[in-house]
Amino acid sequence: MSDKFVYMDYNATTPVDAEVVKAMLPYFSEKYGNASSKHHFGNESSAAVEHSRKQISCLIHCNPKDIIFTSGATESNNLALKGIIESNYKENINIVTTEIEHSSILDVCKSLSASGVTVKYVKPNEYGIVSSEDVENAIDDNTVLVSVMTANNEIGTIQPIPEIGQICKVKNILFHTDAVQAFGKIPIDVNEFNVDLMSISAHKIYGPKGTGALYVNSNKKIKLAEQINGGGHEHGFRSGTLNTPGIVGFGKAAEIASSGMYADFQKEIVQRDILTENFLKRISFTYLNGSKEKRLPNNVSISFEGVESGVLLSHIKNIALSTGSACSSATLQPSHVLKAIGKSDSQIKSAVRFGIGRETTNEEINYVIEKVVEAVNRLRG
Ligand code: PMP
Hints:
Layout lengths: L5 E2 L10 H7 L1 H4 L10 H21 L6 E4 L2 H15 L6 E5 L4 H12 L3 E5 L9 H7 L4 E5 L13 H11 L2 E5 L11 H4 L3 E5 L10 E5 L27 H39 L3 E3 L10 E6 L4 H7 L3 E2 L5 H6 L4 H5 L4 H5 L1 E5 L6 H19 L1
Parallel strand pairs: 1-11, 3-4, 3-5, 5-6, 6-7
Antiparallel strand pairs: 2-8, 7-8, 9-10, 10-12
The protein binds 4'-deoxy-4'-aminopyridoxal-5'-phosphate.
């Protein structure tokens, strides 16, 4: 095992499932028609795209026509926030979000506030959970949109989405959730969640990178300004020739997730808890970041106080882990999520994210435990 690379960063991305690759392959060179073309080749692609819409809609219990394909959840989040603000613009407009969103929400909020939109950021509690009452209190007569992520990408905490959705429903305010980390990992029903818009991505569920979607509730006749202008694809919400192979792969990955989610979920919870308990018991001054109960089945975020995470990872180079989220580690900023939940600087600097996946074996879990325990003890002297 010692020479082997161990991948334990499944919150950053996942390998593409072999069945997904198989489903995609014909759509590169055999069935290559443009899904908008009105001839045999185009119809073949368009039928595949519609099949994929159905597969994805089954996983979140929506109408297939409510799925708008995009290039990934970063685009979906941009479309949701900018699209809603642009088409519902009024003076003194505001949106309500949280301090722990992904950068593809927070950076859009920054750019919206530069153009005069007020953004209200709700603070999570020390366990990384936002309270629905705090969201309700932040809403006022000028609020047009609430956006709260379903599960956090760094610490895996799951937010009270159905409750927040219910508040928005009663107040007649649009509700968006970034469900990238939760989609395919925990059951999602857009009706129970009371959401109007939801961002999802293929590459976190063993599908291809560069393919995502925005769910837009068609019952509501939501006004959403297109952010990529062109041929009016996707009901005029998102122009551009559809990425048929990617979309086919996304659909297949969703189908596999819906059939096997329960089994993956059970296995990952057991592995997650073994990992957590071993670290907490065997290494002193070690803290779990975020709620122990309300978290994704596959995420463990731990701070090994006194050992900088970058240094720790450089001592266990054959294990693929993350110091926070893959996206924020690219900018080397201290985690805004850990800051928001009140972690000290030394806890923030020593945080490591373990992401467990469908293919993670018990042998790998034990190997990672031993290697990390040994490295932390060695580095602490
Ligand atoms: N939101 C969350 C919570 C994420 O974890 C990610 C991916 N790291 C994104 C949005 C962006 O998704 P994509 O990579 O499909 O653009």
